[in-house]
Amino acid sequence: MGYLKQIDIENFKSWRGKQIIGPFMRFNCIIGTNGSGKSNIMDALSFAMGERVVYLRVKHLKDLIHGAHIGQPVSDTASVAMRYCNDEDEETVFCRSIIGDSSDYWINGQHVTFAKYTEELEKIGIVTKARNCLVFQGTVECIALKDPKERTKMFESISQSREYAAEYDRKKAALLKA
Ligand code: ATP
Ligand code: MG
Fold it and tell me: What family does this chain come from, according to its entry (predicted)?
């Protein structure tokens, strides 16, 4: 199983200019005082994983640009690149950039469509539409309070085991009949 090695950020939320976060280990813990930017790291990751703007704590993509929260964006562009390493230590760089209010997607420096981007992310187990398994601040309680069936559905969707559910039920029924 691969891991996230580093995040390269430019003008995204609390980071002005080009900045590097990492290198990361396979397990990481981020600590810091209130308002220091912990959740912004999760926003940056979610953004690079193709997350929709509504889940990034802003109204418009352009609000993600450094300084935009006080009406003084430092640029009209921002980007976040995730450096992913597989077990053979081969690196893939998934990068999402914004210009104004539209996004561009890049894999290893090559411009790709959103469909291709999410397809390649799925190959390493990141499912954009399943919200990437990130549990955001305030959502722990919401997940804990879900009806058990709903919670199971959520985990099945994240782990992608849901697509095998019908086949599983079919085989189970056949076994019970035999
Ligand atoms: P808490 O412990 O309270 O959850 P946190 O460490 O998660 O705090 P974040 O929410 O990640 O903090 O960061 C908040 C900070 O991000 C604020 O200080 C805010 O000024 C800054 N910020 C948010 N958007 C932008 C932006 N577009 N440009 C610059 N700074 C920004
Ligand atoms: Mg926070």
Answer: Belongs to the SMC family. SMC1 subfamily.
